[in-house]
Write a structure and sequence with these properties.
386 residues; mainly alpha; Globin-like; 2 domains; 17 helices; 2 strands; 75% helix; 1% strand; globular
Length: 386
């Protein structure tokens, strides 16, 4: 009888863990759709019909078919760019060349994009297309109409399941071999998305961009690992409550911090241009979100292994390549610390501080040298993180 009770308790706990995991995944999926950056807002009502065509079943199938036709070629072109960009870094970091298997990595990316386009090409509910027309008559901005329609067309839970789990498994596969490999794989996906989106119209690019952002999110960020760690916490755990409070606003936080960095460094140029460049800005927002997820993971797991073994090496490999100075990362962390303390109770914030302190010390002048921090406009206060 005790055994049965134990089995029942264990089963209930398992269901509770699953519920937490699915809840966080659903929150993230909703969040990135709700924060979808769109170019629609400057366009007029005359674009409503073309938007209807883009998100219709036929339009989505045509877009997916067009991209699938070029996907194989694009996958190989993307890897070629990765090799040019990171070949010297791979040698410098003494990464085993056998782990950088171009055929395996391009095949994996091909598979993920193929499944993503399958989801994209699904039937668009006619009810939501009629809703779009109703919103048009009400005079709402076109980007808002597109967002409301598109959020309903593909259930966020389906996005999280189909894309999130697949990419999460891929991420786990490569980080288990050598955590540094994820930097090369991430850039493969980054260039593949970039090249595919370049072939689309503005409207197609905007609505399909939500899917490619989902890939980016789950590849750059240990989201699945964070979901699993969250399942090990009680519902009233301060660490879990901290993550649940921050997750819905993580993109808002990332945008706010990115704008502050741009204001502090208006003339700073990385290898791709100034920080206010729209594409660079989007990458910056994603990176700030990535740091947030690693902070959550450190808190939920109760250790900083992911920060030490994944995030830090990833930054060491990629940021110098793109001419991102460490002073910018330090400034970003300072702003992030402010946001955490403003948005959480002291008890919740305290659960993140051990991981935050580790990051603060890792990206310090003592590690990288004072020369990389000469132009910081704000004098950092180390007492801030104590």
């Amino acid at each position: 009888m005790n055994t049965k009770c134990g089995e029942k308790d264990e089963q209930s706990s398992s269901f509770a863990d699953l519920e937490v995991t699915q809840s966080l995944a659903l929150q993230w999926a909703k969040k990135y759709l709700q924060n979808l950056d769109s170019d629609f807002c400057k366009q007029g009502k005359e674009d409503t019909i073309s938007l209807k065509e883009v998100v219709s079943q036929e339009g989505r199938k045509n877009t997916a078919k067009k991209l699938m036709a070029s996907l194989r070629t694009v996958s190989h072109q993307a890897w070629y760019k990765v090799e040019i960009l990171l070949y010297q870094e791979a040698k410098r970091h003494k990464i085993d060349p056998e782990l950088l298997n171009p055929w395996e990595i391009t095949a994996d990316s091909f598979n993920i994009y193929g499944k993503t386009l399958d989801v994209y090409a699904q039937q668009a509910p006619l009810q939501q297309l009629s809703t779009l027309m109703r919103l048009a008559r009400q005079g709402k901005p076109l980007y808002q109409k597109a967002l409301e329609v598109y959020t309903e067309q593909v259930a966020p839970s389906q996005l999280a399941t189909v894309i999130g789990l697949e990419v999460g498994a891929l991420r786990k596969k490569y980080t288990q071999q050598d955590p540094r490999i994820i930097g090369f794989v991430s850039m493969q996906f980054h260039y593949t998305s970039q090249m595919l989106l370049e072939t689309l119209s503005d409207l197609e690019r905007s609505v399909l961009g939500a899917y490619f952002k989902a890939i980016d999110d789950h590849l750059y960020m240990p989201l699945q690992r964070a979901y699993e760690a969250a399942g090990n916490h009680d519902y009233d755990s301060p660490a879990l409550l901290a993550v649940q409070n921050l997750l819905p606003v993580s993109t808002e936080i990332a945008k706010k911090i990115t704008e502050k960095i741009i204001d502090y460094y208006p003339n700073y140029r990385c290898s791709s241009g100034i920080l206010s460049n729209p594409l660079i800005k989007l990458s910056s927002i994603r990176d700030v979100e990535m740091f947030q997820v690693y902070l959550w993971l450190g808190s939920l797991e109760g250790n900083v292994s992911a920060i030490q073994q994944e995030l830090f090496p990833l930054c060491i490999i990629l940021y110098p390549t793109f001419n991102i100075h460490w002073e910018l990362i330090r400034q970003m962390l300072y702003f992030l610390g402010q946001e955490i303390k403003e948005r959480l109770t002291s008890k919740q914030a305290d659960t993140l501080m051990p991981s935050y302190q580790v990051l603060w010390q890792m990206f310090s002048p003592e590690v990288f040298g004072e020369l990389d921090f000469r132009q910081v406009p704000h004098k950092f206060d180390d007492d801030f993180v104590k």
